[in-house]
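Q: Given only this backbone (266 positions), what sequence would you predict?
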């Protein structure tokens, strides 16, 4: 593995860990872990082909339980994964796909925590990716990362990760990643995560000052709180927000934050 690849992987893993472990150490986090009925959750899921599942405690970045056709798809049995770090599952991808997956997962968390608390259980992350088998073969899978346990602040504690063989129906084997927001069942959003750098007209990008405001907006700060952080007047911050709503054709601050996350501005 090249040094550049290692540095990128460590950076994206660090970013991912920062967002994934938001609920770590809190009293309500410890309490909900005791009361999870995982059998009830897994019995509610049905897959259309060979699949395996991994239950992940993201506060500890640890695999709690695995099941399904784990050995058929990976060549490893349950003991290889259970009680070990989540990286054991992630490293079944190529280095490039590991970097993409971690980068996209960070964008997913930013989007998730920009949404109202009651919507968060209905927002998941999907990716299509090659899963490397112990014997050197590869299976193209759909990996769904579904939040199944939250603390009292609606911060994610556990994810159910389901990997389903889709090689028979998706022959191009290209990596893709997207957010599925089904909080409104009549308007389900599929939001693609683009990992390629794009050259765009700078007039359609936020200015450095606007980016600073967006950064604080994305973590839920008010105009007054942002003004205090940036040593600006509240009026200036409100003007930045108003200008960005017009510039990026958004009707609300939540829509503006959503666009900023999707485009990698924050």
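A: Predicted residues:
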């Amino acid at each position: 593995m090249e040094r550049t690849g290692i540095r990128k992987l460590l950076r994206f893993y660090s970013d991912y860990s920062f967002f994934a472990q938001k609920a770590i150490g809190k009293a309500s986090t410890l309490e909900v872990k005791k009361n999870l009925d995982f059998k009830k959750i897994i019995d509610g899921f049905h897959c259309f082909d060979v699949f395996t599942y991994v239950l992940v405690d993201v506060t500890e970045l640890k695999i709690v339980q695995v099941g399904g056709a784990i050995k058929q798809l990976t060549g490893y049995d349950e003991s290889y994964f259970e009680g070990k770090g989540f990286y054991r599952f992630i490293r079944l991808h190529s280095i490039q796909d590991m970097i993409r997956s971690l980068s996209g997962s960070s964008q997913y968390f930013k989007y998730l925590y920009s949404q109202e608390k009651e919507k968060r259980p209905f927002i998941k992350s999907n990716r299509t990716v090659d899963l490397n088998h112990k014997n050197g073969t590869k299976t193209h899978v759909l990996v769904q990362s579904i939040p199944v346990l939250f603390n009292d602040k609606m911060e994610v504690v556990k994810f159910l990760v389901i990997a389903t063989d889709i090689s028979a129906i998706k022959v191009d084997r290209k990596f893709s990643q997207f957010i599925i927001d089904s909080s409104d069942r009549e308007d389900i959003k599929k939001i693609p995560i683009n990992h390629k750098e794009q050259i765009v007209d700078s007039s359609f990008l936020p200015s450095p000052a606007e980016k600073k405001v967006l950064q604080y907006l994305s973590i839920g700060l008010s105009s007054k709180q942002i003004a205090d952080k940036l040593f600006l007047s509240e009026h200036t911050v409100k003007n930045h927000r108003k200008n960005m709503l017009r510039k990026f054709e958004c009707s609300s601050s939540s829509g503006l934050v959503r666009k900023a996350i999707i485009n990698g501005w924050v």
